[in-house]
Specification:
single chain, alpha/beta, 3 domains, six-stranded parallel beta sheet, globular
C-alpha cells in the first residue's frame, strides 16, 4: 500500500463529512473554526450556509436532518456559541431528529465555560472530544451511525483547534453498516386486530421515510382503519386519505379526543403517549417504537414491538387485507365517522375583526402545492395552521414539539435550500418571527426564496391565553410593541407586505410568490381572536365562571 498523504484534522473532518453524505454545513464562523472553514473552501460539493445567530442556524440544521433523514450539521465556536446552540440540540433530541453539532474549541478555560461535553451530555445522544487528528475519521463515522440508529438524535463532537491544525496520515473510515432492524413479526397484532371493534392508529415520532408513509397509507386504507397523528406529525399520513382522522396536537378536535377514549384497540406507531395531550386511551394498547426505553414507559401495553417505522410499515402493507372476512370491515362506520368529524373540524368558525384567519388558512390549504414544505412556529396562532391546513407526502410539516420559539423562518430556509424548486412556507407569530428575524439576512444571502406568514396580534399569545385562564383580566409581560414588519423585511432586501383585510390576502400572497425573493406577509389581526376556537372574552368568561364554581 502506498504511503498515505498527511492531512490536517480540518481536512480529515471535511472529507469525513462528505463521505457520510453531508451536502450542507450551517455555521456561525468563529476564530476556532478557521481551519475547517478553509478546508470547506476547497470542497464545493459541501455548501456552507452562514447564519446570523446560533439558535437560528441550529434550527436550520435540525430541519435539514428532519427533511433528509441524514444528520443536519451545525458548526459553531465554543464558549457562548456552544451554549446558544443548545436550544436546537434539545429540539433535535425531543423530536428524534438526526443532527451533528461540531464545536470548535480553543485553549482550555478561555471563556470560563463548562466543558462542552459535560454541558451537552444530558441532551445529546452522545458527546465526544477528538484530541488527535488520527481519531477523526473513525469517531465521525461513529457519530453519524449513532445519530441515525435506533431513536435518532443529536450527537456533539468537540474539536480543539490544535487538533484541527495538526496532521495525520490516516485513511478515511467508510460509513458503518446500518443497524440491523428485523422485519417485525405481526402475528400477535393480526390476532388483536381481528378481535377489535373500534381500532384506531396513532402515528408519530421520526424514522418515517416517504416510502414508509406510503406503506402506512396502503395498510390503513386496505383495512379501513382510522389514523390520528401526534403533535407536529400531521404529514405522516396524507391528510386527503379517507383514513385520516385528524391530529392530537394542541387544541385538538374534541370528537377525536373522545374517539381515543372509545377505541378498543389503539395501535401506537412511533409516537409517545405523552404526545397526545388530554386524550386518554382506555382500550388495548399496542406500542411500536425504535427505542426500548420508550416501550417501557407504557405499563400494561398488550404488545410492544421494537422496530423502525420503515420495516414496520412495509410489514403492515404486506399484511393480507382479510380482516375481517366480510366485504367491508365491521368498523367501517367507525372509520367513516372519524373522517366526517375531521372534515367538519376543517371548517372555520366565526372570526373577530377584518382579517379572517380561518378563511386565509383555508385558502392556503386549497392552493399550496402537494409537495410544499410548511414550517410552523410555536404560539397560539399555530392553532389555525394545525386545524385548517392539509399536510401530505412528499410535502412536509416542520415544527418543534418542544415549543421552541423562532423555529419557522430558519426551518423554512433549510427546506428551501434542500429543495430549491419546491415551495417553502414558514408560519409564525409576531413574537416567534422577531426571535429569529435576523435569519432573513441568511435567506437573502443564500437566495432562499421562502414565504413567511407572520400573524401579528401584538402579544405572546400562548402566555396570554394561560394568563387569562389562571388570572382572568390580569395581563402582564405578554404585550408586544412591534416594528413595521414590512419595512423590516424590505431593509433586509426581502419582499414585505402588510395585510389587514381578508380580501387583500390573495393578492399579497401572489405578489410575495412572484417577487422571487424571501418574503414576509404580515397579517395584522384582532388580538381578541386568540385561537381558532374562542376569543379572549370567551376564555375570560369561562375562567371566571370556573373560579366561582358555576
Amino acid at each position: 500500500m502506498p504511503d498515505l498523504p498527511a492531512r490536517t484534522g480540518a481536512r480529515l473532518l471535511v472529507d469525513a463529512l462528505r463521505a457520510h453524505g453531508t451536502d450542507t454545513v450551517f455555521t456561525l464562523p468563529g476564530d476556532h473554526l478557521v481551519d475547517v472553514l478553509d478546508a470547506l473552501l476547497d470542497t464545493p460539493d459541501v455548501r456552507t450556509v452562514t447564519g446570523r445567530q446560533e439558535v437560528g442556524l441550529s434550527f436550520m440544521a435540525e430541519a435539514h436532518g428532519r427533511l433528509t433523514g441524514r444528520p443536519g450539521v451545525a458548526l459553531v465556536n465554543g464558549g457562548p456559541s456552544a451554549a446558544s446552540v443548545m436550544i436546537g440540540v434539545q429540539t433535535a433530541r425531543q423530536d428524534a431528529t438526526p443532527m451533528l453539532l461540531l464545536i470548535g474549541e480553543g485553549a482550555a478555560g478561555v471563556y470560563g465555560t463548562p466543558d462542552p461535553c459535560r454541558l451537552f451530555e444530558p441532551v445529546a445522544k452522545w458527546t465526544a472530544r477528538i484530541d488527535e487528528a488520527a481519531q477523526l475519521p473513525e469517531i465521525v463515522a461513529q457519530a453519524f451511525h449513532t445519530a441515525i440508529s435506533g431513536q435518532p438524535g443529536p450527537v456533539v463532537l468537540v474539536l480543539p483547534q490544535t487538533m484541527l491544525a495538526a496532521e495525520a496520515a490516516i485513511p478515511d473510515t467508510p460509513p458503518f453498516p446500518p443497524e440491523d432492524t428485523p422485519f417485525p413479526d405481526l402475528d400477535a397484532l393480526r390476532t388483536l386486530l381481528a378481535e377489535a371493534e373500534r381500532p384506531l392508529l396513532l402515528v408519530g415520532g421520526s424514522t418515517w421515510t416517504d416510502a414508509a408513509c406510503a406503506d402506512l397509507k396502503s395498510f390503513a386504507e386496505a383495512h379501513g382503519l382510522p389514523v390520528a397523528c401526534a403533535f407536529r406529525r400531521q404529514d405522516i399520513l396524507d391528510n386527503e386519505s379517507p383514513s385520516h382522522a385528524g391530529d392530537l396536537g394542541t387544541w385538538p378536535s374534541p370528537a377525536l379526543v373522545q374517539r381515543v377514549a372509545d377505541a378498543d384497540l389503539l395501535l401506537v406507531l412511533g409516537a409517545r403517549l405523552d404526545e397526545i395531550g388530554d386524550a386518554a386511551p382506555t382500550g388495548t394498547v399496542v406500542h411500536a417504537h425504535p427505542c426500548a426505553e420508550e416501550l417501557d414507559r407504557i405499563p400494561g401495553a398488550a404488545l410492544t414491538i421494537r422496530t423502525a417505522m420503515a420495516p414496520l410499515a412495509a410489514a403492515l402493507a404486506a399484511m393480507p387485507a382479510t380482516l375481517p372476512t366480510t366485504e367491508s370491515p365491521r368498523w367501517a362506520e367507525w372509520t367513516e365517522a372519524a373522517r366526517a368529524d375531521f372534515m367538519a373540524w376543517l371548517e372555520p368558525g366565526p372570526c373577530v375583526g377584518d382579517l379572517d384567519l380561518g378563511w386565509v388558512f383555508g385558502w392556503l390549504r386549497d392552493r399550496l402545492p402537494l409537495d410544499a414544505a410548511v414550517a410552523v412556529d410555536t404560539g397560539s396562532f399555530s392553532n389555525w395552521a394545525q386545524r385548517h391546513l392539509l399536510y401530505r407526502r412528499p410535502g412536509r410539516q416542520l415544527g418543534p414539539a418542544n415549543g421552541a420559539l423562532g423555529y419557522a423562518l430558519p426551518a423554512a430556509i433549510a427546506a428551501k435550500l434542500a429543495n430549491p424548486k419546491k415551495v417553502a412556507v414558514g408560519m409564525a407569530g409576531d413574537g416567534g418571527f422577531l426571535a429569529t428575524s435576523a435569519e432573513l439576512a441568511t435567506a437573502v444571502q443564500a437566495g432562499a426564496a421562502v414565504i413567511l406568514i407572520v400573524v401579528n396580534n401584538g402579544m405572546f399569545g400562548t402566555a396570554r391565553l394561560h394568563q387569562e385562564w389562571r388570572f382572568p383580566g390580569r395581563v402582564g409581560a405578554t404585550a408586544l410593541a412591534n416594528p413595521d414588519l414590512k419595512a423590516l423585511a424590505e431593509s433586509f432586501g426581502a419582499f414585505g407586505v402588510t395585510v389587514e383585510r381578508t380580501e387583500d390576502f390573495v393578492q399579497a400572497f401572489w405578489d410575495a410568490m412572484w417577487s422571487r425573493k424571501p418574503a414576509v406577509i404580515e397579517l395584522r389581526v384582532d388580538p381578541e381572536q386568540i385561537t381558532a376556537g374562542f376569543t379572549i372574552s370567551q376564555l375570560r368568561a369561562v375562567a371566571l365562571a370556573a373560579r366561582k364554581g358555576e
